[in-house]
Amino acid sequence: MKFRKAISLVLALVIVFSVEVCSLGSVFATSQTNQYQKYIYKRGQDLKNTYAKLSAGDELNIVYFGGSVTNGTGATNAQTDSWRGLVGQWFVDNFNNVTINNINSAIGATGSKFGAYRLNHDVIAHKPDLVFVEFAINDYYDNQGEDIPLAEYGMRFETIVRNIRKELPLCDIVTVYTTEISHVNTNQAGELHDEAKEHEKICVAYNIPSIHIGRALADKITVGKAQQEWPEYFYDDGTNVHPNNKGYKIYFDAIKEYLENCLINSSYDGSAKNHTLPKMVNEYLLDGNIEVIDVDEALVTKSQELGGKNLKLKHYSEMNIGNPFRTFGDDGAASIEKNESVSFALEFTGTEIAILETCENDNKVEYYSIKVDNQEEKSVARQMTPTVLATGLEYGKHTVIIRPYFANSAKDNSKFLIKAFFVRDDRAVTAKYDHEHVYGNYISDKNASCVKNGTKTAKCCIKNCDKFKTVVDLGSKLTHKFVVVPTKKATLYKNGKGEKICSLCGRFDDVVTIKKIKSVKANDCHYNGKVQTPKVTVKDSAGKTVSSKYYTLKCYGKRKNLGSYKVKVTFKGNYSGSKTVKFKINPPKSSIKKLTAAKKSLKVKITKKTKQVKGYEIQYSTSKKFSKSTTKILTVSSNKKTTATLKGLKSKKKYYVRVRTYKTSSGKKYYSAWSGYKSKKTK
Q1: At residue 507, what are phi and psi to the nearest 5 degrees?
Q2: Helix 136-145 and helix 194-205: axis angle, to 10°?
Q3: Can you say whether the dihedral through the CA atoms of 35, 39, 44, 48 is positive or negative?
């Protein structure tokens, strides 16, 4: 009986514990899954604040912020079968004690520019705890129609990220990257498309996790068979970007693994912490006290008063046009006929005005005619939502008159509706720096080439400023450094061939002849008590000295004492072959230490040399060139005797005197080189 009671108690505890685990989404960590690990980039706090909110068992606001793929285009039912719908249901199923508010702020055919404009209206106003952001694919499409620097997409995305961080520091952000058919090869190589890479730089800088769901799906496609296998995962609407239910399920599975590992298979302590706000990446953001002006009856009436024509307030349902901008309500200023002369007049205060509009099907407005403050009328091409009509205005109150013009291909009864306007004050944009930069000395980046000038960079001198400025370093362009690259090497007997190529940039200049080797000479050495290697001189058939970089030396013998030795010269580079030549080690040089004049004579004092020296020869002449007819030699046969007298000289005559050492070795007499001369006039 006691045993049965004990078992019952254990079962009861297990049941209670199981209920707690289900209701809280697992407080204790279990094993994590890693099927999609290579597509998931965890960073910073990940979802610790979301976990804390779920653990508190209250309410969780999730905003899905992106384009048509986030909205769910292509799914049978966007609310249940898209990745957004599946993620939302996953939260509901796993955290049934928490009120999950899934807020769809996705709008098709819009990128991060529109995201920056509508951020406050469609995201921050909902005070989310978690935001999924997906704009990189539409930024790619945006960049097909406009010549925009890639860094611009990073700036737009940073605007979204930084302002969420500033306004909602506890809010977790997750970035997702989708794919389309032209990106399959890039994704299968483990890479993102260029615009997504700009977003990813911001994710890294701000420690925001990202999930490469597009890569996960691309890897399901057989390499080289995208055209054949794409329809298995994507809805057939001609765009090749909207998944079907099967494709959305793969997107969801990758996200689900991240969510499960962070929120179920985890061991967070349940505490929340503000996300840190790093230094800005870009110098400016696309913000600036953005005001959304919704079009309503009062605005249409005011437009007519200001000179607007033939635009009436309409409800989406009256136009059968759909409501892609549902987050901005159901009404707008509408025109029904393509050929009507219509215009909208608006008063606003700011430096920039942008328009949010929609048209029936593909009957889009091609451009706008804009007139600001009765100035000259200008044409503005329609851009990916929203279209900026005027920017860089002086801050203040302005009146703008807007005339839309349909493309020639549009039908006569094409429907057009202005939904809202966005007004910015670019004086209030978030800036990385709050001062005017002052740059110090520019330092060369050492990247000049023979083709172009290099650059030089300076750092702002203002304390704690990390701004650098790089400019062209005029005059730093290098001179070509041509070297001969042999195609046929020269030898001791034949000329070779070569090409003059710049060693810096590889530029070809000319075909040249490499002259054959004419002479190889090894200079004699003087005894110094050490093993010696001679200086070798090589000349080609044109009489030019060949650089020592084109040959190596190998000497034979001990090469220390007096004697004759050999050195082998082996050629390389532009030359081939070898030659062995002889050189001598002679006695050490001496010198005239002192010369003293006497009557018809000169007294000579010699610098003493004893090692490897037998004696000295003193040469004297009335010619400093020591011509044969004017020159005589006095031999001093002992190396210990360092003085000698030159007798029988002419009176009051100038004589030039020099000395050399000698020694006989192995039956051969060796001489040092002559010393420099000294001169003196006799008495």
Answers
A1: -70, 135
A2: 130
A3: negative
DSSP annotation of 309? B
Question: Which structure tokens are listed for 192?
Answer: 């993102």
Where residue 1 falls among pLDDT bands split at 50, 70, 90?
A: very low
Residue 637 Cα distances to 569, 660, 664, angstroms: 38, 12, 12
Report whether 592 contacts 657 (CB < 8 A).
yes
Whose tokens are 């793929």? That residue is 69
CA-nearest of 282, 287, 345 to 149 is 282
List, for residues 197-223, the tens digit of each pLDDT value. 999 999 999 999 999 999 999 999 999
pTM reported for the whole predicted model? 0.68
In this structure, how many other beta carbons lie within 10 angstroms of the beta carbon of residue 393? 18
> What pLDDT, on the 0 to 100 scale, is given for residue 33?
84
Token pair for 111: 């990128």
- Return the axis-axis angle of helices 150-167 and 194-205, rounded to nearest 10°: 30
Q: Which amino acid appears at position 393 of this protein?
A: L
Measured in degrees and rounded to the nearest 5, phi and psi for residue 184 equal: -60, -50
337 pLDDT above the threshold of 50 = yes
Could you tell me how many residues make up the chain? 683
Strand, helix or coil for residue 336: coil
The percent helix, strand, coil of the chain (3-state, each to 5) is 25, 35, 40
Peptide bond into 386 cis (omega under 30): yes
The torsion angles phi and psi of 246, rounded to 5 degrees, stand at -65, -40
Q: Cβ(484)–Cβ(543) under 8 Å?
A: no
Rounded alpha-carbon distances, angstroms, from residue 443 to 111, 440, 458, 472, 476: 40, 9, 6, 11, 12
Strand partners for 512: 498
pLDDT for residue 401: 97
Q: What is the mean pLDDT of residues 79-83?
A: 98
| Cβ atoms 153, 195 nearer than 8 A | yes
Enumerate the β-bridge partners of residue 404: 368
139 and 153 Cβ atoms separated by less than 8 Å: yes
How far, in Å, CA of 233 to CA of 242, rounded? 9
DSSP 286: S
The string of pLDDT tens digits covering residues 288-300 is 999 999 999 999 9
